Amino acid sequence: MTTNQSAQFDKKPQPDFTATDPYKILGLSPAAGQSDIKRTYFALIRQHPPETAPDKFKIIRGAYEKLKDTKRRGETDIFRPKAPPDWQPSGRPLTLDTTFHATDALTVLRHWGELGRTDFQADYRDVNL
Amino acid sequence: MSKRSKRRKRREKQQKEEARLTGPVLAQQGLQAFRQADYAQAIKCWEQATRKKDAPEAIPSALAEAYFRLAMNHTDPIKNMAQAVKFQPNDALYRYHLALAHHRAGNLEQAEPLYRDLLKQSPPFERAAAPLAQLLIEQKKAVPKDPVWARLSPAQQRQLAAAEALIKNKAASTLQRLAETPLEPIWQGMVALALDDIAASVTDLKPLTTPDSDAPPQICNVARYYLGLTAAQAGQDESALAHWQAAKNNDLDTPHLHRNVSVTAYTLALKAQQAGQPEQAQQLLNQVSRTAGIQQDLRAFTRQLSWEMGYAAAQKGNWQQALVNWQQAEQAGDNSRSLLFNLALAYQHQEQFGQAAEHWRTVLRRRPRKADHPEALTDQQVARIWQNIAENYSKAGHFDEAVTTYKNALKWAPNNLDIRLKLVESLQNEGRWQAAENELDRILDKDPDNVPALVLRAESYSDGYFQERPRQLWRRILKLEPQHPVARQQLAHTFEVEAMRWTEWGYNYQEAIKILKAGLKEVPDSQRLLTVTGGTYADWDKFDQARDYLAQAVARNPNDMQTLYTIFTIWLENGSKPDMMQTLQKLQAISPAPPAGLFLDLSERCLQYSQSGLTEQILNFVVHSYSADVDARVGAAGVYIELDQERKALPILRQVLKEQPDHIPANIELGFVYYYTDQTRLAKRQWDKASELARQTNNQAMVHRVKLIKDEYLHGKRPPQNMFEALKTMPPELLDELLKTAPPEIAAMLRNMSPAEMMAMLAGFGGFDDDDDLFR
What we know:
The complex is a heterodimer of chains A (about 130) and B (about 775).
Chain A (H helix, E strand, L loop, with lengths): L2 H8 L11 H5 L7 H14 L6 H14 L2 H9 L23 H9 L19
Helix pairs in contact in A: 3-4
Chain B lengths: L2 H18 L2 H13 L3 H12 L8 H14 L4 H11 L4 H13 L3 H13 L8 H10 L9 H4 L2 H14 L4 H8 L5 H10 L3 H8 L11 H17 L3 H13 L5 H20 L3 H8 L9 H21 L3 H13 L5 H13 L3 H13 L13 H17 L3 H14 L4 H13 L3 H14 L4 H12 L5 H13 L4 H22 L2 H14 L4 H13 L3 H14 L4 H13 L3 H13 L6 H13 L3 H14 L4 H13 L3 H14 L4 H13 L3 H17 L3 H14 L9 H7 L2 H8 L4 H9 L2 H10 L12
């Protein structure tokens, strides 16, 4: 192993204990080699030993069981949900309409003064019969 | 009486009452309603008063005021103001408000002459000047040239000049000049906007949008729109969207507002999606208008978000949500292979196996065929997916499809014995025994020591008369896997079956014991075989040997309730009370306690063998040890009744009904207590109550059961004698309830069966057992 590779594996994996995907649980890429899986597994159970973190250990162990050999991994891989495709908007720029619209002035005009007033109680007259 | 005549009578009565009321009375009633702001009622009373000869003179003016106030309450303003004017045609105020109503409704042609008349009268009605000037600007007429301009105050002239300049897109110099004059904030702000003076516009417009602003809603909306625009130009997209949403929610409806909401929501949605927040992106996307000119992008984006949300849900194990999201992506036009794959997976996780199988088939049909394709499947993978399809078909009950698809899987992996074994199971499920045998031969040819195949073969032989063939197979399996639990159990079973033939057909206990002992030599720790051997000795009246073997059986697992139950029945059948008592004590000592039903069953068996004392002892135990179990106590009361101990059943049932008055079986049993103590009327009342409770809870089985009890005990009707009669007399709703859990095709078949066909079918099952109780 080169120094670079070694440094790479010395980095702590980023597991996701809420995931169901065994690769995500172990914090690995689906392209990881079998030896990477094993190394990561041992690194993780050192961090989360069964005595102090039994739940996390169980999750790590469960994920490893699905990937520990090529047969099981093949079975796991074949029934893993496919990730969403890469998608980019068409690139056509969407621009805001920043112009001043005379129609808005017309709207204001239509609601300005007495036309926009709603309370005309001052105009009410008393009724005496 | 018909509805029409009822209506007519009511109307006539009303008319008579109205006729009795005088004009002044009606006037006062109207006034009372008017003072309570019920203007519609006031109008009704006063209009009736106008038809009276003694109506007060002031009624028309009162009516005009009531119509005016109704119009001011936003109730059909044009119609109501027209009425007010009808009653008071010379009243300038009412005519002015009629003009305003027309103006607000956009009826400028009707409004203009009204305004002009008001200004022409003497003295002129000056309030009409400003709205008339507004109307002329709306009509794009030159207001300063109109005589009305001179009637406006200098302040009004400044505001309306600004409005005209903005509406007519006048030159910047004009706007600049106007901006330097004192204007109301809305016009000041709009002029500043038209002059691109963003800072000034914000200062003017912001106060209009505060909660304490008294600006009319639409003016407030326009201010919000432009404040949003200034925020967007400053890069504050969230703030811009909030302003625009507020304006939109308050009924501002302009194309540029919709466009800007859409563009900003879309931009923010993209940011949310890139930040891995698809739910938030979806919420933002919901605000994007379909007319925004980005339909294609919108559709693709929605699809993508559904994909991403489904994937995130699946990653968290929430397959139900994943399925919903991926179905949405599919509906939005995604028919990619990857989505199909995910849908198949989601259907499978949601146990919709038929759908899953069909989707997997499509996944395989659309797989890339070129070997160098990045998503190409290997032969093993294809075989595995075919196998998965077959498993889904099996779980969906489509065994014929399962057989076909397992065969497809084998085409891609002919040496895969696991798949071939599954094929055997499917063939057996389909009843194709010979085909299953042939497949087993193929497996065992390739792998003679294949344990699962040997197990399947042994199981298929176990139903036959001769036990030697399966026995040899079980022995072979145990040689390969000495602790194989099924093989051990089944090997013992072959000896039990063979021994039972000697006892049941020839009472040849000696031969039976010889076989059982041979079995025990091979499976010495078989609890079942030890129990059967003990039972056989007991039947042979060799009680010492029996006790010895039965003790050995108990010693294997002292808490095994099935073994103890069997031992109890052995001693019950052989009449050995001390052994029964000893076994009962062992059963009562089991921890955790067995279900109460076991003891109730034992008590009924004791009753069958006329062991009344023991029956009572067991029932006492149930009542005291299962005091929290209402059903157990009711069951015990039922057996007490069978034992003619109604006086013991009564307090138990009364206590149960005190705790749970709605307990249907308790009510039924109490009915029996009354019946057997010659209180038939009380029995009927109790059964009626049970029936009512059953109806209330829609418990069809109980409703029918009570009916049968009443028919038999109260009306002397013969109860159904067998299953056919029971099915024939069953109400359709109960049959539906019973068939609810049946597979749909079986339920449909039973529903459509004629009586003759049903009789033939039931006869095919080997007849009926009179003890069958369909309703328990």
